[in-house]
Prior knowledge:
60% helix, rod-shaped, 98 residues, mainly alpha, 2 domains
Amino acid sequence: xxxxxxxxxxxxxxxxxxxxxxxxxxxxxxxxxxxxxxxxxxxxxxxxxxxxxxxxxxxxxxxxxxxxxxxxxxxxxxxxxxxxxxxxxxxxxxxxxx
Length: 98
């Protein structure tokens, strides 16, 4: 069986527009008369090109449990930890170890 080749670059703007509107890959493929796999591969390649264009490299590995955020977020985290310390101190005091 011969492979079907389509110049997907001709449909690039339409694909991105429909994807931006929230259409699924299957809906885009049906509207343009293409296969779902072609749309999937195009979007994957497009996203990869966009990532490569960034100046900052994307982090690898598992994300941090508590990622560093703004000053406001850090202040909330500090207060949360201070409350935990206070609870532990009161427990140790009641237990007679402090």
